[in-house]
Amino acid sequence: MSMHQPVTRSTRLAARFHEVRQYSLSLVEGLTAEDCQLQSMAEASPVKWHLAHTSWFFETFILSGMPNAPATFDPAYKVLFNSYYVGVGARHLRAERGMLSRPSLDEILAYRAHVDCHMRAALDGGALSDDALNLIELGLNHEQQHQELILTDLKHHFSLNPLLPAWRSGSADGATNDEQSANTFVAIDGGLVDIGHRGKAFCFDNERPRHKVWLEPFELTRRNVSNGDYLAFMAEGGYERPELWLSDGWDMVCNTQMQAPLYWRHDGENWRRFTLHGEQLLDHSAPVMHISFYEADAYARWAGARLPTEAEWEFAAAANQDLRGLFDQVWQWTNSAYLPYPGYQPAAGAVGEYNGKFMINQMVLRGSSLATPPGHARISYRNFFPASARWQFSGLRLAR
Q1: 312 lies in a domain?
Q2: Alpha helices of the chain — where are they, by DSSP H?
Q3: What is the CATH number of the domain that holds 275?
Q4: I want to staple 307 with a disulfide (CB 3.0 to 4.6 A). Which of 142, 272, 329, 335 is the partner?
């Protein structure tokens, strides 16, 4: 008879819980408490807040609902670290998260340790319901989203520091392969296709239900648009030609005076860009990133093409076409508004606020970026941001 304990869903989740929680801590190694305090704009959050909010999720939705629930670490945290869950109660203003000098980073790390201890005990006990295990799975994927936000938000506030500090030493963000080669198109048959998550593995509720979509035959570029490609658009007056821009996009150009992707700077001789590893010379071969939907759309018009729909992107990715850089380089803007799939039903309770209530004034991005945690991306994943967002690792590939 085997002396090994059976591998249950609870034990698998316990191992995954440890891995995900440790990865969050690894992202802040080498950062100071001051680094983790700052909030550079209302859309971003301090690193410290991300560390606390992801712990708040487990305390609020798992631990507090257990029989003999552990004592709340600090009652004030229920408000301070609630993000947008109206059903849970009051929330601290998002734009003022950077004002929270208290609790300190050490106190937040102690909060994480407190939550981790009780979560490990709950998982090791093996008595959690399927509903609770489902919420833990959601919480882990939620934390992975915040791991990416830690990097995007940290990069933004570091870029505003005249010292241009680096998060890590190393090469620039992004691929440095043959991205400067001719960006040829790959022909893809259309037809009646299925999109949406399939199988029983985890997905967010906005990836379901799987449903049919009609696609006309189309083409996608073999790779993502590179910095070198984008420089050609800029050289031909891309930011000065209103005929290339959507009306709101042209207003954004005029109001912000943007002339290049976010984090680009011309030093008089060369273009440079700020990366997680400090400011470096622009790599022409790397995929362009930190552009808004408006910039992606204008570039596509200039190139005599368009952005793909999310259904086109997903079908091509699932068909294993000869496409490079679908994942782990940049999120790719699509021409699809973020809307519910036919038959979509948000989850019950407060976690139902996770996705559904944001299905307005957002555009879908597909794939994943260099900042996406390992194992988090999948073909059916639907990322979404407002059309003006630039601080995410967002780029594009062309369709026609």
Answers
A1: yes
A2: 9-27, 47-61, 77-80, 105-125, 130-159, 227-235, 247-256, 293-302, 310-318
A3: 3.90.1580.10
A4: 335
Please report, for the domain that includes residue 78, its CATH number: 1.20.120
| 197 and 312 fall within a common domain | yes
If you write DSSP's letter for every residue of 93-146 in order, what string do you get?
-GGGGGG---S-HHHHHHHHHHHHHHHHHHHHHT---HHHHHHHHHHHHHHHHH
Q: Give me the pLDDT at residue 2, please.
A: 47
The separation between CA 297 and the C-alpha centre of its own chain, rounded to angstroms, equals 20
Predicted TM-score (pTM) of the model is 0.96
pLDDT band (50, 70, 90) for residue 177: low
Residue 55 counted as domain residue:
yes
Q: What is the pLDDT of residues 46-56, one digit of tens each?
A: 999 999 999 99
| C-alpha distance from residue 294 to each of 244, 253, 326, 331 (Å) | 10, 9, 20, 15
Residue where the block lists tokens 């559904």: 356
- Asked whether the predicted pLDDT for residue 3 surpasses 80, the reply is no
**Considering the domain boundaries, does residue 144 fall inside one?**
yes
Q: What is the pLDDT of residue 295?
A: 99
